Amino acid sequence: MDMKKNFGAYLFLLPAGVILTVFFFIPFFQTIYLSFFDYSNDIYKPVFVMFQNYMTLIHSPMFLKTIVNTFYFLLLCVPFLVIFPLYLAILINQNIKFKNIYKVLIYLPVVVSIVVVAIAFKWLYAQNGLLNYFLSLFHIRPIGFLSDPNVAMISVALVTIFKGVGYYMMIYLSALMSVPKELYDAAEIDGITGLNKHMAITIPHLMPVIALVSTISSISALKVFVEIYVMTHGGPMNSTKTIVYYIYEKAFENLDLGLASAGAVILLFIVMGFSILNIFVFERDKYKI
Amino acid sequence: MKRFKNLPSHIVLIIVCILSLIPFLWLLSTALKGRSENIFAYPPVFIPKDLTIDNFREVLKLVPIVRYVINSFIVAFFTVILNVILSALAAYPLARMEFRGKKIAFFSILATIMVPFQTIMLPVYIVTLKLHLVDNYGLTMGYLGMILPFCVNAFGIFLLRQAFMTIPREIEQSAVIDGCNSFQIFYMLLLPMIKPTLAILAIFTFVGSWGEFLWPSIVLTNEKLFTLPVGINNLSSAFSADYRLIAAGSIVSIIPIIVFFLCLQRYFIEGSYDGANKG
Questions:
Q1: Is the pTM of this model over 0.95?
Q2: Cβ–Cβ gap A268/B119 under 8 Å
Q3: Is the pLDDT of residue B40 over 90?
Q4: I need a surface site. Which of A85, A138, B24, B235 has the fewest CB within 10 A?
Q5: In which region does residue A254 sit, left (phi positive, over 0), alpha (psi from -120 to 50) or beta (all else)?
Q6: DSSP secondary-structure letter at B150?
Q7: Distance, CA of A11 to CA of B106 (rounded, Å)
Q8: Which residue from A120, A136, A276 is facing B23, i.e. has the nearest CB?
Q9: Does B47 share its domain with B120?
């Protein structure tokens, strides 16, 4: 009986196991394997070079710049994506009228493909576009949103923020439903109202979710690619080139598979820190055996 | 006085709603402007003076957007179906059975969450090429190449595993006494009970697959197989001189997903937390 039951478990796991093996585990180990080879002379005759690709990357100003850029991008969007959606969720959660309309409209950008969002923003950002017109009303001179190396990354981050606010707001909204109403009533009796009420009750109660949103938004910031690919191609002057963009370029444009893979392994280590935190601390319950 | 209690909140929320819509409304406005109207006019004009749908006609004539929609739909549909089936099958033993190697299976699947697709995309592409799952081997192979690498994902497995774990064990025990085997218990008894979670998984997988750009842009070479994001990006570089057409194409491309979202908004609102960190 028990044996039969065991055998069944493997059958259930088999289809997913095959797919994950072929499209995850094999590629995963191959990434590590490839990172030890030099493909730059002849793509058909890779040479085993041990850690040389890693050394090349660590000493490459370009690669280091992509790491700096990626973390700059992270710092631009993550704090905003952690705080602002929480603020919106608190506003909507106070049993406000039209709350469903607000939710739907704020969530809308989440479902639209990032490619279209990026195209829409490229249009807003144009030299004589809508945003520069708006700034001109305040006598601000036109900004090269995507052409000024000092501004381009901020412009890209704005797109990511635009696309993400609704998503994180929904996560906060579901979490807010679990805050016991009595706590607020008790606070009001104590004369704590408005912002203080949220500081005293909502924020501490939501701390695990705030932490969760911080890590997922950080992980997705570290993986940013499409916005950049569509809007700036890493330019101007590499000011928006991120790690994933670098890997993509090395892998699919320069066909330098070794360097691309070493870059991927480095990215993996960076992301892993955040995911481990997420899986073993913030979402412990979901991933408990 | 009480009526205006939430007035400041309403003002903030209305502004945020307007901001979420402006990029799309501005695209729409541009798409509706005729040849005679300057789309760079200062001050900008929101309601087109030379209102026309010619740009839509033209872009639909020049670019096979309907074909892109169909391709996106095929890819998303099969990605969803396979995800639901494979994740449910894998989740069940992880939630309900004891077997040798369970820990290994569990942690192997968990490990996949930690590794972003972007770090393994190059070898995934190599594997896909070796399996001939690319469009030079025919349309079917091209579709399979877009679907199979994403047809199961660990988030889905864990989401469903959690749903299975909330079902009381007694329900199964009576079925065992009735002589049901584990597949019957899974298929006839437990699966119907987690329908709401399956719906959430299906919907979030659909949206993710519909918007996916990176992978299709790597594997696709044949325009016949372009999905919407790839096609629209391509259109935006092809018509970079004419933003009216880019705007018209973009607007057409987002209609299906917006309709989908509006019809199923309840699930998005209820399921966001569970669907979180997919994709």
A1: no
A2: yes
A3: no
A4: A138
A5: alpha
A6: G
A7: 15
A8: A120
A9: no
